[in-house]
Design goal:
alpha+beta, 7-stranded mixed β-sheet, 5-stranded mixed β-sheet
């Protein structure tokens, strides 16, 4: 895995040892005008596990946010292929659970670096040169390319009937190159903005901390003890645990929504402050839809 980590870091010109995937910024009233130039595509925001897919010499790995990789046989390529996507559990007819990998971007395709090409070109090259031939050869499992829509079709995306959980929308620029880290032109929208904190159980409370210079050391406050699920989380936390929280305005506390077992670090204080700004400047789905449809420049 060390060689793969180095290769990914080099390919994306990123900080060694840190997950190099692209990271969106939150969409709110302060930046929603950016979408009006019709330079983005919209897709549902899948609530799964973020993974980078890496394959070379017919050996493949799925790499998580903690930059750890496990071997996989969902797809294999002789030449180097690097994908960004989401591992989800779909519920299919008969109430069966099926694990699937949804590809939403392509960095390297069958030996060729494509990260600088337009988004739909990147995806179509992967579909044509890798995925479809693998399907014909019966050498591919549950791998799919995520569906993207024009901005004007935002209502269609909001009303999709999905087989897996979704917690919002993602707006990806059509022409921008793929690069690692925070991307100011890549947006995520959630009707409820959340923050990932490090949680420790102290006496009968849960203390929340955010990151400062890579250490989860800044005390934020106590988790909302008045929430009906507080007791569940209190008894499920032993050591340091990363938890996703939203803001409970009535009690002025951060409320734990779920544990994030896929993460080992809390959000940095800068991200916390950005997300607080989003909470203050937040817009509901109806406002977002109406604003775009009324002001979009096509």
């Amino acid at each position: 895995m060390d060689e793969i980590r180095i290769d990914l870091t080099t390919e994306l010109c990123f900080i060694p040892g840190i997950f190099p995937g692209a990271q969106p910024v939150s969409l709110d009233w302060s930046n929603v005008h950016t979408l009006l130039q019709d330079k983005h595509l919209v897709a549902e925001k899948t609530d799964g596990e973020r993974k980078l897919f890496y394959s070379c010499n017919n050996e493949s790995y799925l790499i998580d946010r903690q930059f750890n990789g496990i071997k996989t046989d969902i797809l294999a390529t002789k030449e180097r292929t690097i994908l960004d996507g989401e591992l989800v559990i779909d519920t299919v007819p008969g109430n069966r659970k099926v694990e699937r990998f949804l590809v939403f971007d392509v960095i390297v395709c069958n030996g060729s670096t494509v990260k600088h090409l337009p988004l739909l070109t990147r995806l179509s090259l992967f579909l044509k040169n890798v995925l479809e031939p693998a399907r014909v050869a019966n050498a591919c499992q549950e791998v799919y390319v995520k569906e993207f829509f024009k901005i004007k079709d935002i209502d269609t995306v909001m009303n999709l009937k999905l087989q897996h959980p979704s917690d919002g929308l993602v707006f990806t620029p059509k022409e921008d190159a793929y690069y690692g880290g925070r991307c100011e032109n890549l947006f995520k929208y959630k009707s409820t903005t959340t923050v990932d904190f490090a949680a420790w159980k102290v006496d009968f409370s849960i203390e929340l901390y955010c990151g400062v210079k890579g250490e989860d050391s800044m005390w934020i406050g106590y988790a909302d003890e008045g929430d009906k699920y507080f007791s569940h989380f209190y008894h499920s936390i032993s050591d340091k645990t990363i938890v996703e929280c939203d803001w409970e305005n009535t009690r002025q506390r951060w409320r734990i929504v779920k544990k994030r077992n896929d993460k080992s670090k809390a959000n940095d204080i800068k991200i916390v402050n950005w997300n607080i700004r989003t909470i203050v400047n937040g817009l509901c789905p109806e406002q977002l839809s109406q604003y775009i449809k009324s002001n979009l420049i096509e």
